[in-house]
């Protein structure tokens, strides 16, 4: 199934909270230029790291539940993978629903 619309994201069932992260999916962004959307729920206020692990050059954008962009990056945010172009964000987030999108250029 494809998750190519902000209005129809892939929902991650586990809520994020202190000391519990979520590893999401073995996702494929194909073809180049494809954009996929994901929905996460933050259960408690805190600082969260949101990353894309990829051997390509993806972008990462985070939206609030209203669809407003609250953060984005295209590179140098994920020190845990060998690809220096893999993006990541570290943000202080209040509880709520958030949408993320990834796209490969």
Descriptive terms for the model:
mainly beta, 105 residues, single chain, 7 strands, 5-stranded mixed sheet, two-stranded antiparallel sheet
Helix content: under 10%
The arrangement of helices and strands along the chain is EEEEEEE
**Major beta-sheet overview:** 5 strands, mixed
**What radius of gyration results from the CA coordinates?**
13 Å
Query: Low-confidence runs (pLDDT<50, min 5 residues)?
Result: none
Tally of helical runs: 0
Structural overview:
With about 100 residues, the protein is mostly beta strands. The protein contains no helices and 7 strands. The protein has strands spanning about 10, 35-40, 45-50, 60-65, 70-75, 90-95, 95-105. Strands 1-2-7-4-5 form a 5-stranded mixed sheet, with no helix packed on it. Strands 3-6 form a two-stranded antiparallel sheet. Strand 4 (about 60-65) and strand 5 form a beta hairpin. It is globular, with a radius of gyration of 13 Å.
């Amino acid at each position: 199934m494809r998750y190519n619309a902000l209005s129809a994201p892939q929902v991650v069932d586990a809520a994020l909270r202190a000391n519990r992260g979520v590893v999401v999916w073995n996702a494929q962004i194909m073809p180049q230029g494809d954009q996929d959307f994901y929905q996460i729920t933050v259960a408690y206020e805190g600082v969260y790291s949101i990353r894309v692990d990829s051997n390509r050059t993806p972008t990462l954008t985070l939206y609030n539940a209203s669809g407003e962009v609250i953060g984005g990056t295209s590179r140098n945010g994920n020190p845990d993978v060998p690809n220096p172009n893999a993006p990541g964000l570290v943000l202080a987030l209040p509880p709520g629903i958030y949408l993320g999108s990834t796209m490969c250029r």
